[in-house]
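This part of the workshop introduces the protein records we will be handling. Getting from the letters to the tokens is the skill we practise here. An example says more than a description, so a record of this kind follows:
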Amino acid sequence: MVRLKFDYSYRPDLAGSLDFNMLPAWRRGWLDTMNLEEKLPEASQQLRAEREYLVKKLEELDKLIDCLEARTARKSKVDQTTVVLHPEEFASMGIATAAEKMIRRANCPLHVRDITEGLKAGGYRFKTKNPLASVISVLFQERRNKGSALRFKGKNIYSLVEIEEKRWAHKHNRHPVVPPPPPPALQSGTPDAETT
């Protein structure tokens, strides 16, 4: 994204090139009135004061826009997920198995670009010139297998069934129910043990 910053400073080189026909009708009428009353120097001062006011307002708006964009960028910023890999971790694995392991480690859905980079970093040696296409193809085929743990999230993002179940439970406040621990074993000789 290209960010443009405007310079609102006065440009004397453009001062004589102003076409009054381009001004709004109310501004042309005001200038004509000032000209008839021979108050053009006062009109010039008023316009400079108005310009200074508008420049200050524009600068305030620029600062506000910068602040809002910075906040928006912070909120929409994708969380950086750190996955610790060992140099030869994926060297002896297939693409699908290594991808599952990597997604499990990240504990969140990953894009195929991230998976490909992780496989390279983990020692997987691709035999093709286009590793990304290989990963896309293998994961596409793997997700179609009935017993596959991979889940396609769209836009080349993959997750695992277990991760999606956790995310769904967290989103809907349905955490797995943990059964209460069994009561402690009753000791013989206590009044409760004799009644049972």
In short: The two ends are 76 Å apart (CA to CA).
